[in-house]
Amino acid sequence: MSDPLPTSGSLRRRLTLQLVGSAAILATLLFFVVLAFARDTAQQTHDSILLASATSIMDSVSVQADEVTVDIPYAALSMLGNVSDDRVFYRVSMRGNILTGYEDLPHTDQNTSSGQSAFDTLTYKNDGIRMVTLSRRLSLNGAPADILTTVAQTREGQATQLAKLSRSALQLGLGFFLVATVLAIWTAQSSIRPLNQLTAAVSRRGPKDLRPVKRPVPSEMIPLVLSLNQFIARLRTSLTRSEDFIAEAAHRVRTPLATVRTQAEITLRRVEKPENRASIREMIRAIDESSRAAGQLLDHAMVTFRIDSLERKDIFLTETAKELVDRLQPIAELKDIDLSFTGYNCPPITGDAILVQNAVRNILDNAIKYSPNDTTIRVSTQETLSTVLIHVEDEAGGFADMDTDALTHRFTRGENAAGTVGSGLGLTIAREVVEAHGGTLQIETSKSGTGACVSLCFPLV
Ligand SMILES: Nc1ncnc2c1ncn2[C@@H]1O[C@H](COP(=O)(O)OP(=O)(O)OP(=O)(O)O)[C@@H](O)[C@H]1O
Ligand SMILES: [Mg+2]
């Protein structure tokens, strides 16, 4: 696992917080605006009823026989009673003289000329009141006389109504905030979704899949995808170059090495001195090591290249295994190894026959190479519900305490490999091929406990 990357926060969290923060500010504003509007509307309604009451009282003021009479209509005060249970006060005065009503009711500070009204919010008898003063000019004994009608009402009902309105405004603000928060989370989630989809599409790819990303993405992500594609293209070029280099180098090294080996063998036959013969044998071994390494590197480069664009054709594993057993029979016979094959016709798997052959050959190679003389190697094929397997079972002592996982990594060899020619690439090639076909390479100790049982397990499609 690679080290976790340092993060500079989460885009989704940042977006969510910003949207939720904006929603909180808007909800608070909404609360105050609704409250102010409701308060204004309630005040205006109350004022217009107060004014209607004062007008009704004023209309009842009349001059009869040079005397001012006031006959307060019942409706003038009862209309205020309809609004709430608040107490109502009134006063009708002329030239500073009280004609009827409460004498101690406060006077307005505002100037009221005839036909005009003035509203005040004051305190009367320790209670808050809203008061309207209406003025009208009458003619009395041929002289003008200003009549002032004042109607006031305590504000408890209004306060209760305002408290109710505040609660409703608060509920509205909270409701708005909750809906906006849900929408904010959803928006943040859906804004980040294309990024997640791109990540998933790139992560789903196999390790060798170096095609450019072509899926449609939002315009803001185009620079990112372009940079990613440029990076993939550079990586592909560099990989191809190194594969070509390995293949070329291996090829150019192997041919002269074969010539040198032949020459060394001829020389060995001619030389008699034991120390010279030992040197030449050392030389031959070194040539074998180099030649094997070059061959395996070449094979590995070829495998990597073919896995990139995997061919998908029917492969009959029983035939492949049988063919390889026949081909390697002479090498097994050199060590008196009994190399046998059992298997019946299994359904075909799909894949690249050259790669599968290469993988199986490496496993057979190992079995022959690490088996002592006069032992048995059993190769068999088997079909399960969803897979076809090739088992190679030998009597070479198995993997003992070796880390079988590590052995499938490049250039890793076991303790039992000392003295045998090899480069540590056989199991790597086999694993990469099997995995490229969607299968698994299983490395275990055989049931008899005397050797290894390596299985190449390919899925049936
Ligand atoms: N059948 C086997 N029995 C015992 N040990 C094995 C067997 N197959 C593999 N090994 C061990 O696993 C190691 C890795 O095998 P691998 O085939 O990758 O490399 P190699 O055989 O050493 O070299 P080469 O690249 O030439 O095949 C070997 O060095 C050996 O120690
Ligand atoms: Mg090997």
Automatic annotation (TrEMBL):
UniProt keywords, alphabetically: Kinase, Membrane, Phosphoprotein, Transferase, Transmembrane, Transmembrane helix, Two-component regulatory system
GO-annotated molecular function: kinase activity
Record's catalysed reaction(s): ATP + protein L-histidine = ADP + protein N-phospho-L-histidine
Any Pfam family the entry gives: HisKA
Record-given protein name: histidine kinase
Main location: membrane
Domain Histidine kinase: 248-461
Subcellular location: Membrane
Signal peptide (UniProt feature, chain positions): none
EC code: 2.7.13.3
Entry-linked PANTHER family: SENSOR HISTIDINE KINASE YKOH (PTHR45436), SENSOR PROTEIN QSEC (PTHR45436:SF1)
Residues annotated as transmembrane: 15-38, 169-188
Domain HAMP: 189-240
Superkingdom assignment: Bacteria
InterPro entries (alphabetical): 2CSK_N (IPR013727), HAMP_dom (IPR003660), HATPase_C_sf (IPR036890), HATPase_dom (IPR003594), His_kinase_dom (IPR005467), HisK_dim/P_dom (IPR003661), HisK_dim/P_sf (IPR036097), Sig_transdc_His_kin-like_C (IPR004358)
